[in-house]
Amino acid sequence: MSAPLAPPSLSVDQARARLAELTVVDVRTPGEYASGHVPGALNVPLDRLERALPVLKESAAELVVVCRSGNRSARACALLAEHGVTAADLTGGTNAWAAGGHELHRPSGGARVGWAMERQVRFTAGALVLVGLGLGLLHPAWQVLSAGIAGGLVFSALTDTCGMAAILSRLPHNRPRATDLDATLAALGAR
Known about the structure:
By secondary structure, the protein is α/β, with parallel strands linked by helices. 50% of the residues lie in helices and 9% in strands.
């Protein structure tokens, strides 16, 4: 059995040169997307990508998938490939796009900008460790909470997955409203 092939990728410079002819799909949470995205990118969060599959299969557009650093977009490209949809991965994600000196678009109208998922995970993990240590002063059994979070962080690093991010992405501020995703899917279908 052969290993799955890595998705095709585009460098930031390649994507920038062809941006007008590409359909960019940003798979970050809506809060992360609002904090700055590649111009013209459409937001389809990774956990909602399966809902977008029928539209993506019918689209004749050349797809480029992007996230913050490239991990989620690589997973999205693999999922799309499993369903017969070819998509390229933007190497380095929006971090590389911004580092290359390229503009990131943000929603107009004073939309609330959320924290990046990595920052949300760091904050939540740190807060839970502190709570576990604080409550551990009252009863030593509470220190298990801190140990559990530490173990989860080690597991996350070893497997390059993050259960806490999966949970946090389901919170209301990280979820798109149904109409937002519907509008995005309509825009995808029109391309």
